[in-house]
Amino acid sequence: MTVSNSKQAALCGAWPSPISAAIVAAGATPLSQVALDGADAYWLAGRASEGGRTTLLRQRGADVREMTPAPFNVRTRVHEYGGGALLVADGTVYFSHFADNRLYMAADGAAPVALTAEGDMRYADFVLDRQRRRLVSVGERHAGAGHPVNTICAVGLDGAFAVLVEGSDFYAAPRLSPDGSQLAWLSWDHPRMPWQGTELWLADVDAGGALVNRRLVAGGADEAVCQPEWSPAGVLHFVSDRSGWWNLYRVAAGAPEPLCARAAEFGMPHWSFGGAMYGFRSEHEIVCTYIENGVSRLAQLSSASGKLQLIANPYEEIRDLRVAGSVIALLGGAPTIALELARIDLAIGLNPGGHEVLARSIDHLPDAGYLSVPESITYPTSGQRLAHAFFYPPQSARYQAAPGSKAPLMVISHGGPTSMATNTLKLATQYWTSRGFAVLDVNYGGSSGFGRAYRDALKGQWGVIDVDDCVAGARHLAARGLVDADRLVIRGGSAGGLTTLCALTFHDVFKAGASYYGVSDLKGLDNDSHKFESHYNEYLIAPQPQAEALYQLRSPINHADRLKRPMIFFQGLDDKVVPPQQSEVMVEALRAAGVPVAYLTLEGEGHGFRKADSIVRTLEAELYFYRRIFGIEAPEALAPVAIDNLPAAA
User: Fold this and answer.
1) C or N: which end of the chain has fewer Cβ atoms within 10 Å?
2) What is the pTM of this model?
3) Pick the CATH number of 11-21+366-620 from 3.40.50.720, 3.30.70.270, 3.10.580.10, 3.40.50.1820
């Protein structure tokens, strides 16, 4: 390896970096749920410094104002993953407050007032029924033992309450027609997840506000429908994967009609409420975003001709797209752009030559010399398949690998497992690459963004296909000479934690790993999981009773004697999705087996860490752990972590 005279040669993994864990925690403001109301733009912003509180901001002209000051926390836990916690209409904000699950209303300039009483209800995904002065919402009642009961309900602005639709296990996306005469919604039942099969229903709204003449429009056990929306003239549109790809349709003469047949994804799995990938500029002009090969595009679709025209923009990940006339608001990111809220005005054409940034998740980026730009790679994996990933080489403005040395590789297995990795700039990734680690962010079989067949590759194969694709990715890079085959690590959260544990238990490629609130016991996951995911394993593994043997075969906790690689575990003590005992049982097994293991618990954290001090502690602990395991000496001062079965540091 040739060493540049402009950079110092140093051991990869030990490079000093200006991207500290504190910068990662303080610099990244989670942005979500964009809304447009006239000329005003609204969005949610996470406040890690305030215990992970989520607040609503509004931009009006040049003025940005916080609409929900502390202690209000705009968040809901319907389906546990939440989303859809706010609605803005006619200058009034309606939102769910996380602390008490009540709905609140805040007129412009006024303090929020409660619409609902204290009780056992949670709400999400609201739409305003102006004629009847009420919100139509997904409701979730938590009363007594057992799973909650989900409905579509109406909440009057005077506090009145009525159930409109009930009987299905789950509901989403109630959408009222422009004239208020019809309501569309999605429903599905166990054991399906919403990306397996949902039903799109339509009903008339009678004079008293009840639903009559209910009829099934689209969907079923093997067709996943998402994001129903009404055009300005009252034509129902939706996204369906009936072709094998999530494409746009409209209801014409009572039947679905495709608008743009394309091997691309115009929809995403319904993990949370309120997402949007299209909206109406006019009756026959749809602004949409779609994903091809893991990368987002922005376009305008003519519903009359089916012509799709790209809209110029700098983003390769686009979500939360909102459209109001010629104005677009969206959350976008790219390899050199951290997630940001942008507004684009199409009144000056589809190639406007610029966009206005309203908010950034990171206000001040590190010097570009410390930022690694990923390469999109495709590589062979098991079963003569191809897998996809983003590869980040190590990058520093001051350091490079010493002659003859190679970078340690961190393979990231995303959660879900039906979600997807994107290439948007993330300081949490750059934290590693700027210290001399290479990173491979894997979209293994089962990930979204590559069509239904790729997503269904994981059917019955969780803990196999995902693991194979992570293992194959690490081997692919090592064979190309890009990383150190003796310093390969894998990390993952939630479902990615199972992938991590299986990779370390059943394969000998990785030398260490980190599990963030990960699954270790599949049977235990069935016993402990919340309603939304309580039957997910029937798709990922097998229905009962066939699943029992596979649970035994694939659960790492049952094969602790085969796990000889050091691991560190991180667990929120308030996690209801993957309860702490999932981590604790595995940690105890490793301790008993004499394998080096560290375990950090975090009070007040659930499934995913929101607090700044939690983010700092976990990042630094993971780095400390790898440096101890691989004997990497570095001048960086890190808080020590107790590692069982490993001699204390000198």
Assistant:
1) C
2) 0.91
3) 3.40.50.1820
